[in-house]
Amino acid sequence: MLVKSTYRYAKISAFKAREVTRAIQGMPATDALDLLRFTPKKAAVLILKTLKSAIANAENNNSLNASDLVVKEAVVGEGPTLNRFQPKARGSAGPIRKRTSHIKVVLTDEIEIVRREDKPKKKKKTSAKKPAAKKTNAKAKDKPAAEAETAAPAAETKE
Q1: Side-chain half-sphere CA neighbours of 158 within 13 A
Q2: Helix, strand or coil, per DSSP, at residue 5
Q3: d(Cα 102, Cα 107) in Å, to the nearest integer?
Q4: Cβ neighbours of 73 (radius 10 Å)
Q5: What is the architecture of the domain spanning 2-87+94-108?
Q6: C or N: which end of the chain has fewer Cβ atoms within 10 Å?
Q7: Facing residues of 53 across strands?
Q8: What's this model's pTM, rounded to 2 decimal places?
Q9: Looking at residue 153, what is its pLDDT?
Q10: Which three-class secondary structure state does DSSP give residue 28?
């Protein structure tokens, strides 16, 4: 069952809040709560409020257990922007945009909870190392070739 919660007109830009919502998507709700509590951003506090509200909605309205819930989606959309002006030099004015956003969190109990500890660990690929070539002495290498050259003309003269 899907459970929604929306925080409208949050006083933060959507760009800043999206960074935090990307981190909690697909996580179990209890893990997402822990992550948001220790994230040092203003957006984390606002999203934490919304997530707690969604969990409360699930428990009270739909009799769901908080430990079974997964964050299906966490979306931040742009809200209205307040336009203000800052006085500048020589009688001009510079714009100030006070942005707002709408934070929406959707929880579900239909997705199976998979934690990082439960996932099978991938084996690390090791680079295939070639065995080192044997070092040979240059003089010893050339010696049989030199003997073969001297032996070949001698063989030709005998024939």
Answers
A1: 5
A2: strand
A3: 17
A4: 15
A5: Alpha-Beta Complex (3.90)
A6: C
A7: none
A8: 0.70
A9: 59
A10: strand
SS (H, E, C) 75-95: EEEECCCEEEEEECHHHCEEE
Q: Are strands 82-87 and 2-10 parallel, antiparallel or unpaired?
A: unpaired
Q: What's the token pair of residue 114?
A: 């998979």
What CA–CA distance (Å, rounded) separates 13 from 21? 13
Let me know: does 91 contact 51? Beta carbons within 8 Å: no
Instruction: State both tokens at 80.
Output: 């209205």
- Reported as a single tens digit per residue, the pLDDT across 36-52 is 999 999 999 999 999 99
Q: Please identify which residue in the block is written with the tokens 């981190």.
A: 23
| Residue in the structure block whose two tokens are 């979306």 | 75
Tell me the backbone φ, ψ of residue 131, rounded to 5 degrees. -65, 145
* CA–CA distance, 94 with 87 (Å, rounded to integer): 6
Each residue of 86-132: pLDDT tens digit?
Answer: 999 999 999 999 999 999 999 999 888 877 676 676 777 776 666 66
Domain residue ranges of the chain, discontinuous segments joined by +: 2-87+94-108
Q: Does the pLDDT of residue 136 top 80, yes or no? A: no
Give the C-alpha separation, 102 to 22, whole Å.
Answer: 15
